[in-house]
Amino acid sequence: MMTNEDLDRIAVDLPIMKAWIAAVEAEILEALQSGAEFQHVRLEPIRPVRKWQEGLDMIPLLLRFSDLDTVAPRKALTPAQAEKALGRNSYRENVAEFVTNESSGMKLVFTTENQKD
């Protein structure tokens, strides 16, 4: 197990290591897409996203099996969509007070030795 001091020493090089790994992955991907074969890596399709075929209006078909609110639910705009639709000033004056801002998690922020917060 590494000590906190070990982790801190390694942390300074993580951005460089991540960039190098990303560059190597990009090169491998390009080689595989060009027909190269490797023993330890292969291309595999990403999990597909299911969507209706292009140009079809599915609502009339779906209405045969359920009601409108089930097959085409109405949803309130997100705060970002509301700001764009209402305009910044109207948004701030009328609805911004009802918005909460919650962090979606934590991230690592790397600093150099000379740079602390």
Topology:
Elements: H1 4-11, H2 14-33, H3 59-63, H4 68-71, H5 79-86, H6 88-94
Structure description:
The chain is an all-alpha fold. Among the domains are: 1-40, no CATH class; 74-100, no CATH class. Helices cover 44% and strands 0% of the residues. The chain contains six helices and no strands. Helix 5 (79-86) crosses helix 6. The two termini are 27 Å apart.
How much helix is in the residues?
40-55%
Report, as a whole number of angstroms, the end-to-end distance: 27 Å
Largest sheet: none
Overall average residue pLDDT: 91
Number of strands: 0
Q: Over all CA atoms, what is the radius of gyration?
A: 25 Å
What is the element string, with H for helices and E for strands?
A: HHHHHH
Based on the structure, what is the oligomeric state of the protein chains?
Answer: single chain
SS-derived structural category: mainly alpha
What is the 3D form? flat
β content, as a range?
under 5%
Per DSSP, the total helix count is 6
Low-confidence stretches: none
